[in-house]
Amino acid sequence: MTEFGHKLTYISPNMIVRGKLYWEFYKSTIGLNAVFSITVSLFAMDVFVWAFPISIATVGPLLTLFYKETTHQHEFYFYYNKGISKTQLISTYLLLCAITGSVIFILLSYV
Amino acid sequence: MSDILEADSITKAFGRRPILTDIFLKCETGDILGLMGRNGTGKSTLLKILFGTLKADNKFLRINGEVCPKPFTKNDLICYLPQDSFLPGNLQVERAIELYLGREAVLLFLQDEYLCNVNGSQVSSLSGGELRYLEIKLLLNLKSKFILLDEPFNGISPLVVEGIKAMILAASATKGIILSDHDFRNVLDVSNRCCLLLDGGIKTISYPEELVKWGYVSASKFQN
What we know:
- The structure holds 2 protein chains of 2 kinds.
- By secondary structure, chain A is mostly helical.
- Helix content of chain A is 81%, strand content 0%.
- Chain B has helices at 43-51, 93-101, 106-110, 128-140, 158-171, 184-190, 210-213; strands at 4-14, 17-28, 32-37, 58-63, 66-67, 78-81, 146-150, 176-180, 193-198, 201-205.
- Chain B has 7 helices and 10 strands.
- The radius of gyration of chain B is 18 Å and the shape is globular.
- Chain B starts with a strand and ends in an 11-residue tail after the last helix.
- Chain B has a single domain (4-222), classed as P-loop containing nucleotide triphosphate hydrolases (Rossmann fold), CATH 3.40.50.
- Chains A and B meet through helix 2 and helix 5 of A and helix 2 of B.
């Protein structure tokens, strides 16, 4: 393998730790996201089944982030101290929520 | 090798109220720089600007000669203890240690007279003192070259304060430490250089009685 190839495939311990931290943030908020999403979906009872996964991927994470920002803002320092900026944390979180919503949407469409 | 953090020309105002006006500060490996000042003089603001999470109106920050606008985004460079607890309450203590220091460090980390009872606990169930001690120990054990501690002695019992001071002194062998606290006796005890934030500027404190001269403590505090 070329030197360039090695760089592409090498996953540093730091990247693994960062991955774990992103996952911890996601885990710490997914419950709240689900609660917000169920609440939002109740306003669209006719299409509740479809509104829920869409909400999990869109409105839910935004409400969750707003809640975190207003009540647990200092907890972001847990991630800052490991070199993760708020932009990185939030963009990864939104991506994971989008994936979660998509998976639920696909699963529901087969039920 | 000694690492050097140099901050120059830091200014910050909130609205029309200037908080920091032209701050210069230097910290090297081995330094424990005590930062004192009355409430609202900008101690926490300065630490957050140095860490990189608060935007200054103007700042010039270099670490080992390299300009660093946001030092916290670089690996193993700087870490910060905020005034409020930063560990997420839902985490297990062991998990927090594992994420910061690695799985192999957990057992050794918890072999500590002040942390022996927290094994298996959730962060949210710890007392304020236990949590503060855990956070300080976590940060001091990171590989970061510089550590910023905002009120590390706040709400800590005297015996644990001694433990924290011993950890800070030990960590200073390989790190530069800047700490800010209102408990000036402990700050004077542990630091090898002291500064006072006053009227937006920074004054070097050469001997403790200067704190009286600048109106930070009353003269009666130095009697007996």
